[in-house]
Structures are given as C-alpha cells and as structure tokens.
Design a protein that fits this description.
Radius of gyration: 24 Å
Helix content: 55-70%
Order of helices and strands: HHHHHHHHHHHHHHH
Structural class: mainly alpha
Number of helices: 15
Number of domains: 1
Number of strands: 0
Distance between the termini: 69 Å
Length: about 400
C-alpha cells in the first residue's frame, strides 16, 4: 500500500495505531477518527471558499466588462484575506427587540447544514461515510439551510427580512420538488440511494442517459441556493438585501461563506449523480486521481452556475413560481416515469446500448418541450394587449387571420 495509492487510509491507520498505543479503547478511537475527519473536511470546505470568492469575482467582472479584484496581492489573490480581516474586526450589532438566540443560531445552522452534506459525498473510492439512503440524506439535511434563512428573517425583527423569509418558504420549498424528482432518476438507473453505489454504477455517465434530468437538477438547485436569476431572496432593489439585512461582522460572513459553499456543493452533487463522480482512468488504483477528477467535474458545474449568475437578469416572483410548478415539475415527472419504464425494458443491454436508447428518448422529449414552449409563446403574443397611447388604457388585440398569426 503506497502513499499515492491510499494516502487517506495510511493516515487513518497511523492515527488509529497511535491512539490505541496511548491505551484508548477501540470505540473511543473510532469516535476520535470520525471527529478528526469531520474537522478536516469542514476546514477544507470552508477554506476552499476563499478561492471561490476570488474566482467568482474575477470571472463575473470579466463577463460584465469589469476588472474585478486587482489591488491586494497579484491579480487580487489576497483580496479575500483582506475582506476576512475587515469583517472579523467589525462589530456584531443586534437589532432592537431581536430574538438573540435564534438570531445567532440562524447563520450557523445554514453553514452546518451544507457542511453536513459533505459527510456523505464520496470524494475517493472506498473512503468516507456511506450508507444506503445517502441521496435522501442530502435532501433532508439541505432543508436545514432553508430553516436557517427563515429563522434569520423572523428573528431580525425587520419587515424586509421577514418578507425575504416568506419568499424562502415559497421559493426554496417549491423548487425542492423538481430537485428531488430529478435526483430520483440516477437513483432509479443505479438501483441504489447510496452515493458511492451511484458512482460505481456509472459505467456510462448518467448525463448521457438523462441530460434533461441533469438540467432540471441544476436549475432547481440554483433556485434553491437563491442565486441569479432566482435571487428573489436577496433582491436589493425590493427588500434591501433580504433576510440578512440586519446581520454584520462574522454572522454575516457565515451567511456569505454558506452561499458560496452551497453553490460549489451543487457542483459536487451534480458530478457525483450525473458525471461519474471520482471515476476516471486510474482512479481505483490511485484514489488521489479520483479526488482530482471529482474536483474538476464539480468545478465545471460550478463555473456554469457562475456563468449564469453573471449574465441572466432576475425573474419576477410569478415567473419563477410558474416556471417551477408549470414546467420543471411536470417535465421531471415525465422523465422519472421514462427512466423507470424504459430502463426496465432495457435489461440485458450493454451499458452503451442502454445509454444511447435513453439519450434518444431524452432528445425526443426535449424536442417536444421546445415545440410546446414555442407554441405557448406564440399564443401569449397573440393574446397580449396592444400598447396604449399616453392617457389611454391598453386594448385587446383584435383577432388575426390564420396566415398573419403564423407569420408573427
């Protein structure tokens, strides 16, 4: 067993022998190892946010024809550290009549919920905590982040923060439905809720078998995080920055870190569920390669999210909810039924034969969805009222002949 092939196992075995040599019991040694692993994973995840903040500022700046951070350190690399020093030295101000215990717990709960998801992400083969309902666990634990935002809005004693908390109930819980339905597609294809089992079952990446499910999962997850174009929770022009308007100092920084970490966690879960996770050439022999593969895949998904954030405008609340309940959820149900029925009929097929059949059906469903969306848009255009002159009310558009309607 070499250092490059099993570095984490070697370190764990060394610590186990060290603790046992100190006379600790086997049970206490196991608890200490899990505690050390949790601290290491949480520290690395939160430390990675420092790079994500710099990267996202730089990329969005370029997309929007701005320079981005460039003053502190080469290429602005030290700007996140300067911001960290600044925010640590800021005073934490409690609003009048705020519920202080809930006010303090809210950001901690949000960050802890995201860190808890990392407990079951298979970073490398044969390492990490894994159980047979890990996919369900990620959904259940992620709901605590929603609870943290609600507590923040309620405990701040601020009407704008409370409005944002109400939007949280409408938005994040609504988009949980298509997220779960899309997540069930790889669960059905793999035949297990174990994330490690889903990775090991992807002889062909599930993004090939279910590209539409991946797209729905990505869109709904971005909406759950509350990022552009779904950032109604933090609509500065409407509710003055939303649920965290009354937070300052390290409590605000905890929300800030949780937002970036949650966005990257979406990339990690997307890579595990649809992009093969740690699978790649040499990953089983050298787990460190598997970690690199997973990180690259997760970073690609995260970059797409940054791209969307830097380019798309914010939706209205009615558009956002209609998109969830009238488009994403029905489509996710159709894809779930398709995955269950078709995959049952393809028993005995080779992995690539199975994947190509699923891909062809997804392309067909996608073509139908695009045709329906175009027909719906044309119908809405014909029903749209004519523009009114100053001082007049809009009037209904008169009926159009069939040929003219088609030309529109």
């Amino acid at each position: 067993m070499g250092l490059l092939s099993h570095p984490i196992t070697l370190v764990a075995d060394w610590l186990r022998n060290l603790f046992l040599g100190w006379g600790l019991s086997q049970g206490l040694t196991t608890v200490l190892l899990y505690l050390i692993a949790a601290i290491v994973v949480a520290s690395l995840a939160n430390g990675w946010v420092i790079f994500l903040i710099w990267f996202e500022r730089k990329i969005v700046g370029r997309m929007q024809d701005r320079i981005g951070p460039n003053r502190v350190g080469p290429y602005g690399l030290l700007q996140p550290f300067a911001d960290l020093i600044k925010i640590i030295t800021k005073e934490i101000i409690f609003p009048d009549k705020a519920d202080k215990p809930l006010y303090v717990i809210a950001p901690l709960l949000m960050d802890a919920a995201i860190i808890a998801i990392w407990a079951v992400i298979p970073l490398v083969p044969m390492v990490g905590m894994d159980f047979n309902v890990a996919a369900l666990y990620t959904i259940a634990v992620g709901a605590f982040a929603t609870l943290g935002i609600i507590l923040a809005g309620w405990s701040s004693n601020n009407k704008f923060a409370l409005v944002s908390a109400f939007r949280t109930v409408a938005q994040m819980i609504s988009y949980e439905v298509p997220t779960v339905l899309a997540l069930l597609v790889p669960v059905l294809l793999a035949g297990t809720m174990s994330l490690q089992g889903i990775v090991e079952a992807q002889h062909v990446w599930y993004i090939v078998l279910a590209p539409l499910a991946f797209l729905i999962y990505f869109i709904a997850s971005v909406a759950e995080v509350g990022r552009t174009p779904f950032d109604l929770l933090e609509a500065e022009s409407e509710i003055v920055a939303g649920f965290h308007i009354e937070y300052s100092g390290m409590l605000f920084a905890t929300f800030y870190v949780g937002d970036f970490l949650h966005a990257f966690t979406i990339g990690m879960l997307g890579a595990v569920l649809f992009l093969g996770g740690w699978r790649g050439p040499g990953a089983e022999a050298y787990p460190i390669l598997g970690l690199i593969y997973l990180w690259i895949k997760a970073f690609v998904v995260y970059f797409v999210g940054v791209w969307v954030r830097g380019t798309l405008p914010r939706l209205r609340i009615d558009q956002m909810m209609n998109f969830c309940w009238k488009f994403l959820t029905p489509l996710a149900l159709i894809l779930l039924v398709e995955a269950a029925v078709v995959d049952r009929l393809l028993l005995g097929f080779t992995p690539w034969g199975r994947g190509l059949v699923h891909l062809a059906i997804n392309v067909f469903i996608g073509a139908l969805v695009i045709a329906y969306a175009r027909a719906y848009d044309n119908r809405r255009k014909r029903e749209r009222p004519l523009a009114a002159k100053p001082g007049q009310y809009p009037v209904a558009r008169p009926p159009q002949p069939a040929a003219e309607a088609q030309s529109d």
